[in-house]
Amino acid sequence: MNIDAADGLPTWRLWGEERTPGAIFTVYLKKVRYHRPNKSVSEQEDNISHLEWETVRVRLVKAATLNKLVECLASDEGELETTYVNIFLATYRSFSTASQVLGLLIDRYKLLASDSDEVELPDCIRQLHMKTLILSLHVWLDTYPEDFVDPPKFPALQRLDEFCKENVPESELAVRVNHRLERLLQEVGESSARVPTAVLHNNGDVHEIVDSTKVTDLSEYKFPHINEVLFAEQLTCMDMDLFTRLVPHQCLGSVWARRGEKPGAIGGLAGGAAGSVLATVNQFNAVSLRVISTILVQAIPDRVAIITTWIKIAQELRVLKNFSSLKAIVSGLQSNPIHRLKRTWAGLDKDTYQLFSELARIFSEENNQFAQRELLMREGTAKFANTVGTNDRQLQKAIQRQLNQSGTISHGTIPYLGTFLTDLTMIDTAIPDFVGEQKLINFDKRRREFEILAQIKLLQSAANGYSFKLDLKFEEWFNSIPVLDDKEAYDLSCQLEQAAPSNTLGSADSAKSKKRQGHKKNDSVASTNSGSSSSSFYLNTSHETSWRSSRGLSPSPLSSKSSSTSSLVSLDASLGSTATSGSNAKHQQSLDSSSTTMEPEFYVIKVTTDCQGHAKEGQVMYKSIMLSNNDRTHQVVRQAMLKLGLEGRPDDYSFAQILPQKELFLPHDANVYYAVNTAHDLNFIVRRAKKL
Predict the structure, then answer these.
(1) What is the distance between the alpha carbons of residues 587 and 26, in angstroms, rounded to a whole number?
(2) E strand or H helix at 198, and its extent?
(3) Which of 143, 332, 471, 498 has the fewest beta carbons under 10 Å from its own?
(4) What is the predicted pLDDT for the residue at 462?
């Protein structure tokens, strides 16, 4: 029969829960329609009465033991649960290891093949279950090949190869596994025979050793006289390479929290458990730090021109939809050493400063990442940048110029990864890993995480729309720029412009400078007041060493961590400063000598709504959002509306904290961070406001 969804009608209805040994299922009733197969097409078109309806029962795993989760790779009828398999393979690293899952999958197959009484299934269904397990292994090999790369002996592939030879010797899976194992073993043998000609960089990438005696003319990339379009394309080329090689499951909150650990038995990459994510973090920090250093080492007239150039590069990155380097440049310009250069900022012309304000507003705290998400939703898979705010006059001109000149050229999208890392960290913080007294693995949590991982994979596909080639001269220039640690940068900034006494800020000139100097507070997860040299990208080249010596500075801290990290940008450290990262919180507390108490930078709260129809498609009611220390009620409500899929304006809703005996109503302009009662669970409800 041909089954369709019911047009315009809710197709899912929550029925309840079903408990079995080792598992809890959420049960839905789904309304479907079908055509009688014995009716011709013309008869069906002429007589709508031939449409018939049926309600089917759908079970989704809510929580289960690991053994039960592996069993559920096949449905009760033995069919491949495609969505479930994808979620499981994308998130299992949060609660297990590749070696353990592979062992359970093999054991399950052998149990089914043995006709054991432990499995009460008809022979035909039993065979379907076995076939589905083999299909699951195919999906695993295709989708996550890195899970089976553990040189030099590749024990996972060895084990799978032995399983195939014993159980499915002539199958396609057996041929693929054996071919891949032989190829990897051959590559290991060849690489061990070579003379080492490469070095491993901080981000885990291998680069050929460069002959330092060869000096290249890099005047093409000498600030401020550069081609901003070419420069933005080169940054995009570097970001595209990293983003397309990003392993999405390494962004999971629980995996990201283990980023400092060594790779596991299977599936580890250079750089630890989250090597590909750290490579992106390092690149983000590398761009921000070079923004800072290129500005601070220049003479006074050039500093205004250099800031102007960086803002123009950021504009071109917005046109290219490269939000990663765009955010990195904005963060560098908002960092303390650059932000405090009041006379320099006052020298910018009006249009340039307005352009910077428009670019910074994309990531502003006031928008609370709302603008970033909206941009990704509208432009993630679009060919061109086409979204601007009503007051973004400078960006409107740039985007219109692109539309007039680009012709048939299309671009991909590179997101600011910190947005996704924050979401996944919040989910990991707010939702428990286990359910009930049996400590069943919370698979509903993994579904939430998978939704975000799927967005990342979609944008990775879109990123292939770029067609830029990396200019080796640009890479050489980029790596030759000396990098300052936070103390060096701040000291140099103070040498350039002495700090003004606090009682002189009332003058007209000071007021003008204060207005034009940029945004003091960095507004996203790459917080300027929680930097960390452990995640920043430092280079210890001979050029940098001689430059430091000429200024009386200490050597670059490539192999040691800086003891003071209060002013530079770091994507990694701020993500590690949530309430769950105790060691990072203690580290940050020791760095901040001016603070006597350690307040969390944000809370993770859970919001729900009683609006009708919210759960019509089986969505879980509670959603997690981040609450920053200056969020007003209307901003939090807007976030909640976005998460809960509510329409209208924030003014249309009321907001209250759910307490044991009552609800704490929050006025529309209240500072929610300070108004909440932290002695109880941070659970909130959004309701339609009653009309007076």
Answers:
(1) 42
(2) strand 198-200
(3) 498
(4) 86
Residue 8's Cβ-count burial label (10 Å; 0-12, 13-18, 19+) is: exposed
Residue-by-residue DSSP string for 134-178: HHHHHHHHHH-GGGG--TTT-HHHHHHHHHHHHH-TTSHHHHHHH
CA distance 145 to 148: 6
- What is the sign, positive or negative, of the torsion defined by CA atoms of 661, 667, 668, 674? negative
Domain assignments of the chain as residue spans, ordered by start? 1-64, 225-497+505-530+538-573, 602-688
- In this predicted structure, what is the pLDDT of residue 274? 84
| Long-range contacts from 309-315, C-beta under 8 angstroms, 24+ separation | 309/223, 309/224, 309/226, 309/228, 311/352, 311/355, 311/356, 311/359, 312/228, 312/352, 312/355, 313/228, 313/231, 313/232, 313/235, 314/356, 314/359, 315/228, 315/355, 315/359, 315/394, 315/395, 315/398
Burial class (CB in 10 A: 0-12, 13-18, 19+), 491: middle
Q: Are the C-beta atoms of 410 and 371 separated by less than 8 Å?
A: no
Strand-pair partners of 217: none
Judge whether residue 363 has pLDDT over 50: yes
**Was domain 225-497+505-530+538-573 assigned CATH 1.10.840.10?**
yes
**What percent of the chain has a predicted confidence (pLDDT) above 70?**
67
Three-state secondary structure call for residue 59: strand
Q: For residue 444, give the nearest of 273, 249, 683, 622 by alpha carbon.
A: 622
Helix and strand element counts for the chain (H, E): 27, 13
Q: Which CATH number fits domain 602-688: 3.30.450.20, 3.10.20.90, 3.90.25.10, 3.90.190.20?
A: 3.10.20.90
